[in-house]
Amino acid sequence: MNEVVFWGTRGSLPVSLTHRDIREKITGALMAANGKSFKTRAMLDEFVDQLPFAINGTFGGNSSCVEIVGDGPAHFICDMGSGARALGQAKIAKYGVPNPQTYHIFISHLHWDHLMGFPYFAPMYYPGNRIVIHGCHPHLEASFRQQMHAPNFPVDYAQAGARIEFDLMTPGKPHYISGLNVTPKLQHHAGDSYGYRFESLDRTVVYSTDSEHKLDNPAEYEAFVRFFAKADLVIFDAMYSLAEAVSVKADWGHSSNVVGVELCQAAAARRLALFHHEPMHDDKQLSRLVAETRRLEQITRGNRQPLEIISAYDGLSVTL
Known about the structure:
The protein is α/β, with parallel strands linked by helices. The protein has 2 domains: 3-16 and 60-319, Metallo-beta-lactamase, Chain A (4-Layer Sandwich); 19-33 and 42-56, no CATH class.
């Protein structure tokens, strides 16, 4: 493994920038540029690059879809949220057709925000492609078929050109798949959710979304510390604040940035990616959250190695 690409990072449902959001960004950029002169495009680009992310960029609005780039020809994808549409288009643009590819897709759970992009995943319509959908839910195949049956969708599942297979995995057991060891883990979420630990010879990535952590359960805490142990990157459900996670939104099946830092520090992980963003949070709120999380990591670090904190956004590419 050498890279992770985020194609969708929102939780619960996709969202888009509004008219007001765009105006705020334009206004912020113009205010920062007031009195400055840009004689070349390079000077302008340098200025834009120095603006806060909440002004010069966006966390995006697609629901969960993450690509793990391995060392072999097979493609590894976590979840099929709405971000799968852009991912599929990128694969067709890169490899063309006909040029058969193999896609291994790992599904955390069967809620619609994690499946809804599959009907728009272009490689599924081209003969010669092989798509293997891995998961731990007994109704995995039925759920994929159901969302593409009338009246739910105009194109029936039977019209897929690719060869689609389903692999029911055993939680807690490593599975060797196209050069990677992949271990699923049961997580606390309505209808059950599963995280995945991906291991190559020299890199480890953990994908752990839609998981609520009960802080008063030592056995569960230690189990997740082992699951995250020494990972190069932990992709973590940080949808709520700690106060929300333990009070107002307890048992809603999500976690917080605070718990993510605590678990990753205990596990000696190298990097934490905040993920599954609350759809009501705008770019300014998410930027504040990652800044606060970095300050939290600094004051709680002690003698541990630094834990790098990033906040995932649509289009982010992370080198392992």
